[in-house]
């Protein structure tokens, strides 16, 4: 990836692209952040930084989903205890599709996590874990009743010394009396008072209303008094629906809050991006305040993957519910094949998280067979748009409302090598192009743009990348992938 930066401002995220519900920890002089992956695998991306402003992708918590899970990998939470890194995470239980909280541990913050299964199962859902050490006693806190016809509550329970099971009775901490939504809690102690920061409102989608509030109590178990007035974080000129973060101590003993927000221009097409705020204790009556930290604003950023080496870059993900890709990389080429569910009309998508609503991606297809091989902008198995070559024909295709259609096609003089380009505009429309050897770019689609506004699912951004759809034994072979 190539990134050039200029003066710092408030328009840039610290972690660009879809990185919701972030949790952050400091270890060995570096910071590590983990975020929601929803229905994309590998699960729970981990980023690393020396300054909390410039981050690099370090890996994932799970390469394969734990045996007990079926999907919806949300809200991972870092915790360090007894020389062990814990990640408490939300996922749906395979047996009944109920969201529960699981736990995984490692000796390292960025790799080697071993799953220990479910730690919290409560009613119709238990999500958004946060662990707090109160004078040597560990506590688990979580959100409950989000699917019940009653106010949401944040609940707590004692946690065992090894951090792997609940102990004692579950107790209430804070109730959503306003019935607007409550989740994503994080707790600090200051001058004998416990401060419970939480996110209120609707988390996701174009109609979101997320914002950060705080309540305080002289006792960890409550009762908590909610701060009156405006939220600590809500929106500014560039960002909206701020929320669901955790705190970390910087080397200068300052506290920072890593959270997510939607960019007001690109919104759901870039997802909930990683943001940073600084905590101060300068509010009225001793209440805290949060202020977004200005960060370097990229003036140009992109990805260029030449497929060097024998291991694919960490950025690539796939829809694990609907496809099982087989990926091999060698000699400057990436070979993509695999199987996919019958209900999946889009094939195998190997994709990356866009950092902008407007972008172009390109690749070169270097092999010939009857399989479809090309580029895809993928929201879900039933919502995708792509361009690819099959045999000696190039196809501009769409999957929408569980129906697949070909928008346009052309017969090629020679099937390979074939360059493909997929361009997305800021108005959420796309155009696609192809170029044969020694020729110029030609557009499919009768010279008119095609809307991709239907692509984003409710909780995640669409992904852009490579596509394969074909029979067993076939493969797609690509040379270079670029997004800019």
UniProtKB/TrEMBL annotation:
Residues 304-447 form the Beta-xylosidase C-terminal Concanavalin A-like domain. It comes from the Bacteria. The active site is at 21 (proton acceptor), 183 (proton donor). InterPro entries: ConA-like_dom_sf, GH43_C2, Glyco_hydro_43, Glyco_hydro_beta-prop_sf, Glycosyl_Hydrlase_43. The record marks 128 as: Important for catalytic activity, responsible for pKa modulation of the active site Glu and correct orientation of both the proton donor and substrate. Keywords: Glycosidase, Hydrolase. Transmembrane segments: none annotated. This is Beta-xylosidase.
């Amino acid at each position: 990836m190539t990134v050039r930066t200029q003066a710092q401002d408030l328009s840039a995220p610290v972690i660009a692209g879809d990185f919701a519900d972030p949790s952050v920890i400091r270890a060995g002089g570096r910071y590590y952040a983990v975020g929601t992956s929803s229905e994309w695998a590998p699960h729970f991306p981990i980023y690393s930084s020396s300054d909390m402003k410039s981050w690099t992708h370090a890996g994932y918590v799970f390469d394969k989903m734990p045996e007990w899970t079926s999907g919806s990998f949300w809200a991972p939470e870092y915790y360090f205890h007894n020389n062990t890194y814990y990640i408490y995470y939300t996922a749906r239980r395979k047996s009944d599709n109920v969201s529960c909280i699981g736990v995984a541990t490692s000796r390292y913050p960025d790799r080697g996590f071993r799953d220990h299964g479910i730690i919290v199962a409560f009613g119709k859902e238990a999500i958004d874990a946060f662990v707090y050490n109160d004078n040597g006693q560990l506590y688990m806190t979580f959100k409950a009743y989000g699917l019940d016809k009653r106010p949401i509550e944040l609940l707590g329970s004692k946690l065992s010394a090894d951090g792997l099971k609940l102990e004692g009775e579950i107790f209430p901490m804070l109730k959503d009396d306003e019935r607007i939504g409550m989740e994503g809690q994080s707790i600090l102690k200051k001058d004998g008072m416990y401060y419970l920061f939480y996110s209120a409102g609707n988390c996701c989608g174009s109609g979101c209303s997320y914002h950060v509030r705080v309540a305080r109590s002289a006792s960890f178990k409550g009762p908590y008094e909610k701060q009156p007035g405006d939220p600590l974080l809500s929106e500014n000129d560039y960002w909206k629906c701020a929320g669901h973060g955790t705190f970390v101590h910087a080397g200068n003993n300052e506290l920072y809050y890593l959270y997510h927000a939607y960019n007001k221009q690109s919104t759901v097409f870039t997802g909930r991006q990683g943001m940073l705020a600084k905590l101060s204790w300068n509010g009225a009556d001793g209440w805290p305040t949060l202020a977004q930290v200005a960060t370097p604003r990229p003036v140009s950023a992109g990805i260029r993957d030449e497929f060097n080496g024998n291991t694919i870059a960490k950025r690539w993900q796939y829809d694990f519910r609907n496809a099982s890709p087989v990926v091999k990389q060698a000699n400057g080429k990436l070979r993509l094949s695999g199987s996919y569910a019958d209900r999946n009309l889009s094939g195998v998508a190997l994709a990356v998280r866009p950092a902008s609503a407007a972008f172009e991606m390109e690749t070169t297809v270097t092999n010939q067979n009857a399989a479809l091989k090309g580029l895809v902008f993928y929201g879900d198995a039933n919502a995708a748009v792509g361009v690819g070559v099959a045999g000696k024909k190039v196809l501009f295709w769409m999957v929408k409302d569980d129906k697949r259609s070909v928008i346009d096609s052309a017969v090629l003089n020679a099937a390979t090598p074939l360059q493909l380009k997929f361009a997305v505009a800021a108005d959420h429309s796309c155009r696609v192009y192809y170029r044969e050897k020694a020729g110029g770019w030609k557009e499919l689609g009768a010279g008119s743009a095609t809307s991709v506004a239907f692509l984003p699912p409710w909780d995640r951004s669409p992904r852009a990348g490579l596509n394969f759809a074909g029979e067993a034994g076939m493969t797609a072979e690509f040379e270079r992938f670029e997004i800019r």
